[in-house]
Amino acid sequence: MLKLLETAVMTTEEATTGLADILTDPEIDLTKPKETLGYFAKLWAEWDLWGKTQAALPKIIAAALIVLTGFLLAHFVSKLLVRAMRRKRADYAVYNFIAKMVRFVIRITFVLIAVSMFIKINSIIAALSAVGVAIGLGLQDSVAQFVSGVQILINHPFRTGDFIEVAGVSGNVVEISFMTTIIRTLDNKRIVLPNSHLTKNHIVNCSVEGRRRIDFSFSISYTDDIAKAKQVLGETVRGTEFVLDDPAPTIAVGKHGESSVELLALVWCESKHYWDVTFALYERVKLAFDANGVTIPFNQLDVHIIDAPKN
Q1: Residue 83 and residue 253: Cα distance in Å, rounded?
Q2: Is the preceding peptide bond at 247 cis, omega within 30 degrees of 0?
């Protein structure tokens, strides 16, 4: 193999030098086809290019078959990966990227195997490795973002459309890419979060379970009838749209405060109706309490003025 490599390199050098001599030789008129073809035929015979091509033909065919096998194998393996990841409901961006990477790695591996039949590739691989290390050191942050993006897309802590809370930011997930995640807040602001920021913080996914419990706290006066207040609160809760009957709402006394009794209403709804139920109940409970004479106490300050004795 080494002899064949040396022969191929020498032949290439000779051909390059000879071609340069032809193009720069003033005695050869390239405008005369017959003269030019005759000169090339003479070089072909002197260099024995046909004989060298015949000698290398078996390895050329073998290299071509290796490359063809690699491309077919890459296609087959990538198809299997795509089918497996689709069955696991992986995102399109994930399995499409992984399939492309697998195809690329398999193809380049077989191409290098084929090339190694003719030239030494150790030095080339070493050079590429050094370049890869240098690029990796210079792009550490980008690599971290990319790895975090792959982790999010594979593990699915959230999906597009989910309402999440992370590091003081909350909103609906608009887009998940390999580098960033875009969130739209309730007041219609778009927030672009680096994926590494997401993977380093606790993520609260409010949509993944499909249903949410909303905990309400209402205060009544100590002079009010607790049983009546609970009845009014329960009827109001059960009569509110989007409140689920299963699990049933819980109405109970939460605690005795300094100036009021706290009533709790624990209600369930579908995640998409969270804010509808929240806004509706706060309004309807206030109106129901007012209509039934239930007092909602508020902080008051009593000021006592004492006349100072005169000297």
Answers
A1: 54
A2: yes
Phi/psi for 28 (5° steps) reads: -105, 125
Q: Got the DSSP string for 163-176?
A: EEEETTEEEEEEEE
Q: Name the pairing type of β-strands 261-270 and 250-256.
A: antiparallel
Cα 36 to Cα 18: distance, rounded to the nearest angstrom: 13
Report the DSSP pairing between strands 180-184 and 211-220. Answer: unpaired
Query: Could you list the pLDDT tens digit for every one of the 311 residues in the chain?
Result: 334 334 444 444 454 455 455 555 555 555 555 555 665 666 656 666 666 666 677 888 888 898 999 899 998 988 888 888 777 766 666 677 778 888 888 988 888 888 877 777 666 666 667 666 666 655 566 777 777 877 787 777 888 888 899 888 889 998 887 788 899 998 899 999 888 888 888 889 988 888 899 999 999 999 899 999 999 999 999 999 999 998 899 999 999 988 889 999 999 999 889 989 999 999 999 999 999 999 888 776 667 677 766 66
Instruction: Output the pTM of the full model.
Output: 0.52
Domains with residue ranges and CATH for the chain? 2-128 (no CATH), 154-205 (2.30.30.60), 211-291 (3.30.70.100)
Taken as a whole, the chain contains a residue count of 311
